[in-house]
Structure of Ketimine reductase mu-crystallin:
Amino acid sequence: MSESPVLLNKHEVERLLTYDDLIPRLESVMGKFSKRDSSEIIQPVRSVVPIQQHSGFLGVMPAYLTAEGILCTKMVAFYQRAEGSSLPSTQATVLLFHPEHGNVTAIMDGEAITAKRTAAVSAISAKLFKPALSEVLCILGSGQQARSHYDVFTKLFKFKEVRLWSRRKEMAQRFVNDLQDPVTVCSSVKEAVIGADVIVTATGASQPILFGEWVKPGAHIAAVGACRPDWRELDDVLMREAVVYVDSREGATAESGDIILSGAEVFAELGEVINGSFPAQHEKTTVFKSLGMGIQDAVSAKLVLEKWNSEY
Ligand SMILES: NC(=O)C1=CN([C@@H]2O[C@H](COP(=O)(O)OP(=O)(O)OC[C@H]3O[C@@H](n4cnc5c(N)ncnc54)[C@H](O)[C@@H]3O)[C@@H](O)[C@H]2O)C=CC1
Ligand SMILES: O=C(O)C1=NCCCC1
């Protein structure tokens, strides 16, 4: 009989998963992924079931990292919520399996993993692609991803000013009231992004909200929302003028409305830059289009379990 799986709730996962541990593991696994060695990493493009009646989707994200012995899947439900809804738009659970025996070894909350690993990957993109002098950070959106991006970007980089825009100003105000350091709440996307060096888009928008004509030449954009083939956050001008990096070429081609509908060319994967096979063109305007990957959840979950095991 196999042992019962370890059960870890959101609070535990949040406590155990630190950016300092997570970032090097994500850099390493994304570099490996971009080598496309199927004896090392197997990660199909996410399967997505539409939940049409409720404007939602259920995504299943399996991954197997052979050398590390990590067999994992995340199940993530994500929704387009009406303005004013208090329900979370993204909820997830992560399962770790014993690769040899097939039993489940851990079941853990996936919301904290999703928030932290997505923000950590965006921070890796900013490390590589942001302009040498980056003084102004702008975040569009005030939800879970906006918060995790604020946390890791202000932890890793020194900005003179941080700006926030949200479609409901009171939500932006609530976000800012929770923080120690000053953040400017802006009334429009244009006001928030003009002159910004680094821009994070973390909204549930399905039409463009960020327009190339407002973006400072050389800025870096980490684009986290619009994860469906017919959803947009960025307009055609921005997509076509920027150098576009992605987490996975297959994922981007299947799921990113910003890439598919603009016809923008993907220059490289983040992992290809980490491996040194493509350059980081940080002197140009750059977009990192993030869709999320099962391997990111897998290394995060393994880290959480290792930390938990070390305490007990
Ligand atoms: N790239 C990745 O790996 C991941 C992407 N996501 C995506 O990131 C986005 C944000 O996710 P969460 O922070 O978890 O959601 P959330 O519900 O916590 O926050 C969503 C934010 O977007 C705003 N928003 C919603 N609809 C909008 C619209 N039409 N125009 C402008 N703003 C709008 C809301 O006011 C809120 O500030 C979603 O699109 C989600 O699907 C989420 C997890 C991982
Ligand atoms: O990678 C993830 O997790 C997600 N990606 C896009 C939409 C929601 C969750």
About this structure: The mean pLDDT is 97. The longest helix spans residues 111-129. The chain has two domains: 6-113+295-311, 116-292. Residues 78, 81, 88-90, 114, 118, 141-146, 166-168, 171, 202-205, 209, 224-225, 227, 290-292 surround NAI (ligand 1) (CB under 6 Å).
